[in-house]
């Protein structure tokens, strides 16, 4: 392979990941930065030329990548998630498509003076709202479950339907240009054939692969690669039988697997999510690099007016009409109306059709691609920059992930949870013991009855608003498993556990958990503060007390005053930034911070404790950081 091609592909991958990281850091949809990167690499600097890099393989590569993205998205579509909203989704995919198609076609013809044929084709392409931009946007915006489910279903299912619709319109345009008239019968036949092929092949492939997984006829290490090969195979076969039916096929395949009973697709989904992020990143850079900036000047204010019409007129009318009679509030309808960005399918389909229409002599066909990207960039930038703010103002955003999942609802867990709750931090306790859960519920705590590392928890434990985990059970193995399970969910720097009481178990627990999270600092309250010691202190009457440090009362003064009676748990500053006392991290709260600790009365100290070493302003090295 040419060394320049290797270098170009490597640079695309590196820049794509940098864009994703920066987007996560500044809390913006990654698509914004990816588009900017593609424009800089392509038309601005001229360094990247996708046609020269891929040649004739460019659009086949794009098509296969889009197929993988749609399959991954469809694996998340479960019918049970849209109970009560089926009518809304159905209306959006039928009536909503017609509203969007006709309105955009008319506006494109009037505002940009496009020929009716191209305006109708562009309207068909713009009915899509792709998952490539909606799903990342939802991660950032965090709207409630109703809004998220409606937008995900719309974005994933409407992509193949929009592509099929665009192909049918394109076939009509070809027949008119080449034969002088449209063959209505042939068009209807092609439409029915495309839908039938997509549904049948997708359902058969989904059912067959589901049986292999359900009956364990395929080794686990082949699940991911077999699913990827199946997506490529069914996509290619479907397109061979009926052009552009492949996208519908892989969507049906994913939906079938997601809703088939006793079929585990979590590992496949995890793999496809990682792959999709990489593919989406690369695709947007490549397609943006193909743009001709001079074409944007030819569009003028007409493109801006068209974007504003789509954003502020077409989308709201579509959503409010399609949701009549549903239980969606007006705030939820308004939020759904605001989020409707166009994505990779619109860009890819437009680029493909524009080339072929230019070849047969359609006037202004060369403006389809820049107009499509103008709408994509406009919707992504405006909605990505404002959606989170609007969601909060409308009251439809989920709470920030600053809460704590606490594994255990025992006496220690309840005391820690109460201390967090009293200071405005959200908690959810989980326990397999009904008596522990009952005690927590009687104190008004949010609970989940069940094992936090079970399959039932994977399906039913609500993690919305939670961003850290505290493993506070007396079982070292459960603490370690919980750390490993939720490390990928919250990040290794947000996983904490409490040492157990038995020396042997404690050592094993610490080893396992440290392997799981790779850092000693996540041992809560210090190695010598075990579950048994905490439970003993609580049973003897130790209470949670909090103290605010001032200019005249420092952390050292606090330690000297309380001596060995105090077990500091956590501290937070005036902005509610919370830090735990851990085994290795040196935490020195400053003026203005509030310390929350478990404090014994002096009368509860044993003679050995009373005669222990003096506290000189730092915590005992075996208990807490100095």
Major beta sheet, strand line-up: 3-2-1-4-5
Number of strands: 9
The 3D shape can be described as: elongated
Tell me the major beta sheet.
5 strands, parallel
CATH top level class name of the largest domain: Mainly Alpha
> What's the gyration radius in Å?
29 Å
The total of helices stands at: 26
Uncertain spans, ≥5 residues at pLDDT below 50? 516-521, 608-626
Q: What class do helices, strands and sheet pairing give? A: alpha/beta
The tally of structural domains comes to 2
Assess the beta-strand content as a share of residues.
5-15%
User: Per CATH, what is the topology of the largest domain?
Assistant: Na+/H+ antiporter like fold
Distance between the termini: 57 Å
What level of helicity do the residues show?
55-70%
CATH architecture classification of the largest domain: Up-down Bundle
Can you give the mean pLDDT? 80
List strands and helices in order, with pairings.
Elements: H1 3-26, H2 30-44, H3 50-54, H4 58-74, H5 86-93, H6 95-112, H7 116-125, H8 131-141, H9 145-179, H10 184-214, H11 223-241, H12 246-259, H13 266-289, H14 293-299, H15 301-322, H16 330-338, H17 344-359, H18 368-394, E1 403-407, H19 411-422, E2 427-431, H20 434-442, E3 447-449, H21 455-460, E4 466-471, H22 476-490, E5 495-497, H23 503-517, H24 531-539, E6 543-548, H25 555-562, E7 566-572, E8 578-580, E9 594-599, H26 607-610
Parallel strand pairs: 1-2, 1-4, 2-3, 4-5
Antiparallel strand pairs: 6-9, 7-8, 7-9
Structure characteristics:
626 residues; alpha/beta; Na+/H+ antiporter like fold; Rossmann fold; 2 domains; 5-stranded parallel sheet; 4-stranded antiparallel sheet; 26 helices; 62% helix
